[in-house]
Amino acid sequence: MESYTKLAIVAIVLVATLITEPMATNGYKICGVTTDGLKTCQPAVAKNVDPLPSPTPDCCAALGDADMPCFCKYEDMLGNFNIDPKHAMELPAKCQLKKWSNFHC
Predict the structure, then answer these.
(1) How far are the Cα atoms of 23, 30, 51, 64 from residue 98, in angstroms, in the given order?
(2) Most buried by CB count within 10 Å: which residue of 68, 73, 81, 92?
(3) Structure confidence at residue 1 (pLDDT)
(4) CA dist., res. 10 & res. 3, Å (int)
(5) Residues 6 or more apart in contact with residue 22 via CB below 8 angstroms
(6) Phi-psi domain of 70 (left: phi exceeds 0; alpha: psi -120 through 50; beta: other)
(7) What long-range pairs does 73-77 form, CB within 8 A, spacing at least 24?
(8) Along the 105 residues of the chain, how does pLDDT read in single tens digits?
(9) DSSP 3-state assignment of 59?
């Protein structure tokens, strides 16, 4: 359950990125992650994809600077952007983000 919450937060951030993409520039950040960084994670959290690709090194690097508690406010929006919350919750573990190993929304 704990890792599910973490990944849901990451997925929410990805959704927020997709929403703000028309307004974003390369330097625009959501919860400490650039919009370009968030976009690199989208394939690893997509709905109805089998087999699901692993997060890329660029995705994991982008999440390394993330403010995970900030992502909590976006959790309910994920499904609207073709993001599977379950897959999103798996990102911190797949990226081995030890900094957020005990995080809870």
Answers:
(1) 32, 20, 26, 9
(2) 92
(3) 56
(4) 11
(5) none
(6) alpha
(7) 73/12, 74/9, 74/12, 74/13, 74/15, 74/16, 75/8, 75/9, 75/11, 75/12, 75/105, 76/12, 77/12, 77/15, 77/16, 77/19
(8) 566 566 556 666 666 665 555 544 556 788 888 888 888 999 998 999 989 999 999 999 998 888 877 877 887 887 787 888 778 778 888 899 888 766 666
(9) helix
Instruction: Name the packing angle between helices 2-20 and 85-94 (round to 10°).
Output: 110
| Strand ranges inside the chain, DSSP E | 29-30, 33-34
Give the other-Cβ count within 10 Å of 63's Cβ: 27
The one-letter amino acid code at 38 reads L
Please name the residue that has the structure tokens 């599910």. 4
